[in-house]
Amino acid sequence: MPTILGQNQYGKAENRVVRVTRDGDTHHIKDLNVSVALSGEMEDVHYSGSNAHVLPTDTTKNTVFAFAKEHGIESAEQFGIHLARHFVTSQEPIKQARIRIEEYAWDRIATSDANSRFIGSDEVNHSFVRRNQEIRTAQITFDGEKWQVISGLKDLTVLNSTNSEFWGYVKDKYTTLKEAYDRILATDVSARWRYNWTSDEQRMPNWEKSYEQARKHMLHAFAETYSLSLQQTLYQMGSRIINSRSEIDEIRFSLPNNHHFLVDLEPFGLKNDNEVYFAADRPYGLIEGTVLRDGVEPQIPVDMTNL
Amino acid sequence: MPTILGQNQYGKAENRVVRVTRDGDTHHIKDLNVSVALSGEMEDVHYSGSNAHVLPTDTTKNTVFAFAKEHGIESAEQFGIHLARHFVTSQEPIKQARIRIEEYAWDRIATSDANSRFIGSDEVNHSFVRRNQEIRTAQITFDGEKWQVISGLKDLTVLNSTNSEFWGYVKDKYTTLKEAYDRILATDVSARWRYNWTSDEQRMPNWEKSYEQARKHMLHAFAETYSLSLQQTLYQMGSRIINSRSEIDEIRFSLPNNHHFLVDLEPFGLKNDNEVYFAADRPYGLIEGTVLRDGVEPQIPVDMTNL
Amino acid sequence: MPTILGQNQYGKAENRVVRVTRDGDTHHIKDLNVSVALSGEMEDVHYSGSNAHVLPTDTTKNTVFAFAKEHGIESAEQFGIHLARHFVTSQEPIKQARIRIEEYAWDRIATSDANSRFIGSDEVNHSFVRRNQEIRTAQITFDGEKWQVISGLKDLTVLNSTNSEFWGYVKDKYTTLKEAYDRILATDVSARWRYNWTSDEQRMPNWEKSYEQARKHMLHAFAETYSLSLQQTLYQMGSRIINSRSEIDEIRFSLPNNHHFLVDLEPFGLKNDNEVYFAADRPYGLIEGTVLRDGVEPQIPVDMTNL
Amino acid sequence: MPTILGQNQYGKAENRVVRVTRDGDTHHIKDLNVSVALSGEMEDVHYSGSNAHVLPTDTTKNTVFAFAKEHGIESAEQFGIHLARHFVTSQEPIKQARIRIEEYAWDRIATSDANSRFIGSDEVNHSFVRRNQEIRTAQITFDGEKWQVISGLKDLTVLNSTNSEFWGYVKDKYTTLKEAYDRILATDVSARWRYNWTSDEQRMPNWEKSYEQARKHMLHAFAETYSLSLQQTLYQMGSRIINSRSEIDEIRFSLPNNHHFLVDLEPFGLKNDNEVYFAADRPYGLIEGTVLRDGVEPQIPVDMTNL
């Protein structure tokens, strides 16, 4: 046979599981989108169609929902660890499991202000509004021995209305751009960071706290960097996280440069003193890069931040 | 000629204007997506292609950006009023202008907490993160005499994890649904409300405050209504606004019923005590309706909340 | 009670039904997305939450799937007529039904060419590839007496690489656009046309043939019109259909002007002789209009082509 | 410094270039979306913000449009080769260029049928309708010595209404799926194939013909495979291409299993003899895999088919 099978995986993608936990009248919700990808001894199903090694994708879906009950959802990462361990340890032909999760955050609807004359605030602790500011991501991979956890976020849109310049660049025959000494810098942050937790022997990070802190450091670095290039801002965002969070060894970003072009108002006899901008869609600059703790091997794939 | 021209309009859609205002070191931003639609004496351009009455859509785009400088953007509504008045009063053939605006809210990036040892908080008042919780909308129509302002929001996702029932409904030969006495009620609110301000003689509402209050009343009514049907919740949301805000006479909602189905875990020997749900995409129930101040004529079109 | 209920409707939206019909080994498929909206005596469910008049949206979903079996799907329009008639005539409180349908076309995968040495062509008459060129739409409304059928299409993208000009327009102080004597004209056609079939007494149009013919006339008129404005092209497209199809009385279009800007290559010492264009996303001109058979009353709502 | 820079790249993404070529009255169009990613000696711009090695993303955009004039667009692949070679050979610090291209196909609008009484068919050879059936993709990478060309397509939706089974799979405690002996098999094909052309010394493939043939073989294999699993179909599609096209050494697929669930019509007293299906959105099975010519090293990244 002149062709052979290479890397392959299968599973049920985008299982939308919502878990409600009741603490008396106070409800908590976790809202996840869970995708399962299994791989192992799967030659036969590709070559002949024999499903003897195939746990159905429908079963992987059922497992997601059953585990939401059996283990609860403490965090996306912890939930993914339960699932990955289960598939690899319970099915002989399955040698590796990769769980990808998106998490949607919800805030409580506050009704306790003075204008709310209808009911007491304690009665609405079951009401939520989706936050939508970013989508949190987690990817958990297990091969029976080692763990890899890569968390992150996407669609977090940020903007500095000043403290950004761009000049001193290479000019060739196709260069027409004018240098800028005060521009808007805006991007939709997509970031993935890898934890150095790889074994059940190690103490597990506090996934929830680590996420909040990584997100905070990223935002602060974006806000506080006087930027001469988006690459410089990227590196500051990454190194701030590596330096502040010992549990994180590597982080990768995709940062589209959401161009805000100063509108030429001179034809109308108006001066545009960095006040009126056109927010462009396409094309956009795209700045991508990895920041690493010195001495560690990079593992986050180049395109992971584009998923 | 056996065919004639009916209603028609034209203009530049989706002008993405961002306006930065500097209050010393503190910057403010307004981020709008503005669509212009003009109508009037436009038979010739349709019948013969004569553009003698046509102000180019490119010019309407330029006007949006120029007005962001000339008038600033106090609110989406006020900005739309400036634009609509200009087109109708400055071009003889244009008899009506309709300005549609989407507004994207931004929050400041807070860096003043104790962990931010890098810079003082006053230095980052030019840094923003997009809120994304909902999209604010405004539609301003002017015919040279009367104003119509319809504001609203869309994509505001809310969820009650209890206090919702559904039973006592009609059963026919195609009915299989089981009655529910404790279900999740979730929806993506799309709402449009009409102001009773119609003339320059009247005192203009405070558009920003009115929006914040309408949004708040909607959320409170959603949270505080013990719901026997999504229609009941819709009516409560609408009447709360009409009763609380004298400047608003009419409101229309499109409320998809974002079904959260309780997963049957019995095959796995597990009890699902309203804990684990499957969040479905399609199909979804769609509940739409208008709530009016008694005695007023409805004006909001049936499909406006689906735009 | 100072507030009252206005127009309201409810039902199950986006029921994705696929119907396979077997004609021996030759299979046929119809692929629809069906949305049901019912209205009638629905005050109670809004005011008090009583569902005594409410046929559940779940039941309307079941009915869609059951009718695909009971009646088959001859055409989107005919299928909608079956559904609308059923809801209005079988439930006393339901006074009007509106069925909206999107249809996705599929082509057969041709395998009969000489390179297909594997099997005979007759064996693959169950294999399809989705066409995707446009989405076909239909809306059927019934109030127990009169029918209204509005069919159409959307997302049909067309382009003329010449035979389009734009000049002779109004110039005001915000006008900077240069006149164009040879430009690209491109748009995504969204059209809705209304049939004059309104009663069971009348002979029903051949919905499938009428769609194909309306689509063809639209494309031909777009291709064959030497355009001085997109409005002129719109009118030609509409009047061609009205003049050619006696069963259609009214048609409305939304035609975004998909701008293709000639790129200025002079800075690079190159001449751009209408060869290289930048295809822009936003903003875009938006030209909307209705063409009517002389003497008929317009019924298609202004925003229907934006749904 | 405890952190270091890892893999990084930058450039202008999503340049929408449309190229019109005139062959007398007959026009031809190429419609591309081109993304440039450059990498090389870029430490300084990340560490200090110095742009001394940075060719602006704006310049890479200009180059795309200028090259559309200078070189024309023979094929997406050939165009990408021109661009990649230019960036790597003209700028010392740039060591690698990766060009990603999406191509949108257009068909001519045929107006030559008997119903077209308006003009002769030769006058409309400048009129096009976008095909939309799939998006063609190409990725060209050059490091100054070796070329890598990975072409492909996405969003090609196909369906077999029979000749698909699924049974004989593993059953664990979470398995509830019933075996299927006649089911719909449907998927949105995303495929990427790698050419063994890697050097200017080799004869270059005919990119246009190779694409058409690869696409054809894929469709035929999908249609002609009696499928016991989607994995089997995937392997047949891949090996058919490798066996038929000597210029292609490797192909990777992502094939979502677009579930079509047979609707249970028994509650309504109806028998569903594989006639009426519910087309589900999420979750979906996701089958991914690489097929290789025996003896070659795989190079296509795992997630490339998910971009």
From TrEMBL, chains A, B, C, D:
**Pathway(s):** Purine metabolism; urate degradation; (S)-allantoin from urate: step 1/3
Alphabetic keyword roster: Oxidoreductase, Purine metabolism
The catalysed reaction is: urate + O2 + H2O = 5-hydroxyisourate + H2O2
Q: What EC number(s) has UniProt assigned to this enzyme?
A: 1.7.3.3
Q: What is a single Pfam family found in this protein's UniProt entry?
A: Uricase
Broadest EC class assigned to this enzyme:
oxidoreductase
Q: State the superkingdom.
A: Bacteria
Q: Which PANTHER family match?
A: URICASE
Any idea what job this protein has? Answer: Catalyzes the oxidation of uric acid to 5-hydroxyisourate, which is further processed to form (S)-allantoin.
Family recorded in the similarity comment: Belongs to the uricase family.
Q: What is this protein called?
A: Uricase
Q: Which organism is it from?
A: Streptomyces castrisilvae
Gene of origin?
A: pucL
